From TrEMBL, chain A:
Keywords: Cell membrane, Lipoprotein, Membrane, Palmitate, Periplasm, Signal, Sugar transport, Transport
Signal peptide (UniProt feature, chain positions): 1-26
Localization per record: Periplasm
Primary location class: periplasm
Keyword Lipoprotein in annotation: yes
Family to which the UniProt record says this protein belongs: Belongs to the bacterial solute-binding protein 1 family.
Parts of the chain that traverse the membrane: none
Entry-linked InterPro entries: Bact_solute-bd_prot1, SBP
Designated name of the protein: Multiple sugar transport system substrate-binding protein
The organism of origin for this protein: Aquamicrobium terrae
From TrEMBL, chain B:
Lineage of the species this protein comes from: Bacteria, Pseudomonadati, Pseudomonadota, Alphaproteobacteria, Hyphomicrobiales
The name this protein goes by in its record: Multiple sugar transport system permease protein
The UniProt record lists the keyword Ribosomal protein: no
Stretches assigned to the ABC transmembrane type-1 domain: 72-283
Organism domain of life: Bacteria
Keywords: Cell membrane, Membrane, Sugar transport, Transmembrane, Transmembrane helix, Transport
Residues annotated as transmembrane: 20-40, 78-97, 106-129, 141-162, 169-184, 204-221, 233-253, 265-283
Record bears the keyword Membrane: yes
Chief subcellular location: membrane
Annotated compartments: Cell membrane
Pfam families: BPD_transp_1
Protein family according to the UniProt entry: Belongs to the binding-protein-dependent transport system permease family.
Amino acid sequence: MTFSQIRKAGLLATAIAALMASPALAKVTVLGWPGGPEETALRAAADAYNAKADVAENDKVELLFFNRDGFWDKLQADLAAGSTAFDVNLLATYSIGRYAPFMEPVELSGEAESVYGEAVLKTMQFEGKQYGVPTDLSLHFMYYRKDLIDALLNDDAAKARYGEISEKLLGKKLEPKDPDAWDWDDYAATALYFTQSVNPDSPTRYGTVLQIKNLLFNIMVWQSLPRAYGGDWMDAEGKVTVNSDAYRKGLETYKLLYDNGATPRDSLSYEFPEANAAYASGQVAAMLQWNAAASDLTSTEKSPAVAEVTETVAPPSGPEGRFTHIHGLGFGLNKNAANKEGGMKFLQWLSSKEAALTYARNNGAPALTPEVVKEVSEERPDLVQLGEFAGKYGYVMTGGTSAKALSVYELQAKEFTGYWSGQQSLDDALANTEKGMAELLK
Amino acid sequence: MTTTSPSVRTSEFRLLATPLVLFLLVFLGFPAIVNLVYSVSQVSFETLRSPQLSGFSNFAAVWNDAAFWRSVWFSLRFGVLTALLECGLGLFLAIFLSPLIVKRSWLLAILMLPLMVAPALVGLMYRLVLHEFVGPVPYYLWTWFGAGVSFLGPGSAFWTLVTVETLQWTPFALLLFYMAYQAIPADIGEAAAIDGAGPLRRLWRIELPLMAPTIVAALLIRFIDGFRVFDNVYVLTGSGPGGATASLSIYIYEAFFKQGAIGKAVAASVLLFAASFAVLYGLNALATRRKGAAA
């Protein structure tokens, strides 16, 4: 081979490499939340965006998914390393403070406020700047078996038995109520009544299913209980306040249910899918769970044993009111995006009414204003409830969007599951949590 | 015939070794130095490129952390128990099934199947298999005995994890022991039989001593694998309630990613490295001394 031939071959190889590399740079790569309704909705939204005539070939969207396990850790590592593998990435209310240094504030479409409302847009803000489009709002529903509750409410002998059980195990005689009127003691009493090891006549094996694996998301599900008794992470002066009667009440209630067998013994290894599987088996009477489970648990194909008898209400109340934890998932712009301009265009479209309705019609869970949700209320009645509960009962713990919020949840998950499993006392769990949180949030 | 002078040989050796040395410096040396710096620094994801030196506070934090010692104890117990169980079972199966495998070698391929599954997938599989409302094991226990068994509860999680690990990796020990068993010259056994040694005596006095190096190697490999366990434990139970099933690898992972305590996580890694180096150095010295004594 002559030098000239070698040079020609080299030039050809360089040209081929450049051709192969250029399309990847031109696309907008979006990193999404995998394996759930959010993925389905994002795929539909991306398809709709790519089909638009005014979207340039270079700005078409390609989707990228990690595994859910350790998703936020991998994202953290990628963002901190200055990754250019994605232009737009998933963002959550509780992680904005952590990722903001590696992201660009975004400019939403003019319609955004009328589509989502100011409160929902705030779930994607940090230090006054908008970092994302709030595509999915997550909160909690109390799922319950209407057939079982109706039977209980219409049977005097059952009511008497309910009173005996509540007096024996909760220290006060309670009467069954409609789930929409439950306080947390009513929930506990109902869970105990429908537990076969407590009440051998119960039609279900367990009264409830608690998801209490050592996992941060499980603390989010649980914490509406102490919140209803006035619990918060910090007071106005920034002092950690978890070592309180409210947290004590919340922890003791779960411990009582676990120790009395009102939830499966393996609940300490349960998270979202395990709890859903338990409820869908027909052997559980009520469960506090993410709203994302609604479509599966009310689908006769996916949950034939319970779909037609399952109803949802907001979580029970306490002396300080009725609360549900809320947080938003959304999409923001990577500071090191290879196609920043294309990413920004996609985000602007994603915050429009057209995109929000496409997302809603394809299993997504955007919290839409009453005027907008009307357009999908027939196909997605759950979104009406979602918007209503978020507005009436939604809360974020003080410090819940800070850079260390995820670490606080992790700490609580470790300490509180240690108490529920009997490995440490309640006093130790609360003292350790208080000490750790003071260190994290200082 | 030409001879190469020592200086030329040295130059050639240096030239040939250069790529390997460069590779080791880039892929092992650089991360090791960065880790050593991080282990004595206050560092977070935001300050990865500008860590602040902080002395040995990270080491002190790890040393005084009860969770660290609990994870060390978990890993030690898990490593020792799984190594003993896998090697014990593997040895028994290798000898017991040997006549069968010799005639039907495809059996060995079937016995090796668990090795083909990724540990994380094994964890996922058992999450389903052991789930009270989905898994076949709890279903039949409930149907036949009316009992709900907690496989992953606080009292049983450790033993469930040991069982899952043993089921997956016993075939590895079986394979090693079967090969070692087959490599024993038949005439030794025949001579012993002629001298009146029965099967058990031959096993105890001849076959097991000849397999001893393989047994020691298998125990060591399986202990190391068990000690550093992560995937299937993390998928099945996470770090467990209150951190009850946190192995040392999980402790380091959680300190790094979950708590963002990068310095602390790296300090724990350095301690683990130092301990591993001391153990391996000790074993190597012991082996060298025994070899010298035997010579």
